[in-house]
């Protein structure tokens, strides 16, 4: 798949926690920092839930929704990026972060729960 133009970091108006939504998307995180990073979801009440710890050189695929707020944190708990938005591939390196758009996720089935779909 050819890479698309990088997307800006997108956050919902109240980015301190996740809002309910039914527009599915996928974020793929590629860790090339030389250190572990955490993929953390900010839940509906603002609490943090670690969904994945990625060792350097690994990749995680997270099904989610466009208004769900995610942080990628270093091993010391510092947020490297906050992301909420359309499907994207997020490259995390020691030099910085780049975000590349992905095709949209298929529509959610009728009656689908609006939480992280891999929960």
TrEMBL record:
Coiled coil: none annotated. InterPro entries: VHL_beta_dom, VHL_beta_dom_sf, VHL_sf. Residues 24-76 form the von Hippel-Lindau disease tumour suppressor beta domain. This is von Hippel-Lindau disease tumour suppressor beta domain-containing protein. It holds the Pfam family VHL. Signal peptide: none annotated.
């Amino acid at each position: 798949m050819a890479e698309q133009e990088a997307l800006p970091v997108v956050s919902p108006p109240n980015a301190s926690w996740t809002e309910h939504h039914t527009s599915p998307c996928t974020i793929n995180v590629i860790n090339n920092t030389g250190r572990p990073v955490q993929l953390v979801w900010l839940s509906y009440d603002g609490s943090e839930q670690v969904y994945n710890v990625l060792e350097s050189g690994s990749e995680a695929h997270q099904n989610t929704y466009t208004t769900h707020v995610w942080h990628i944190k270093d091993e010391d708990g510092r947020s490297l990026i906050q992301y909420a938005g359309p499907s994207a591939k997020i490259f995390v390196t020691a030099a910085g972060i780049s975000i590349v758009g992905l095709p949209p996720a298929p529509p959610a089935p009728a009656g689908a729960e609006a939480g992280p779909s891999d929960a």
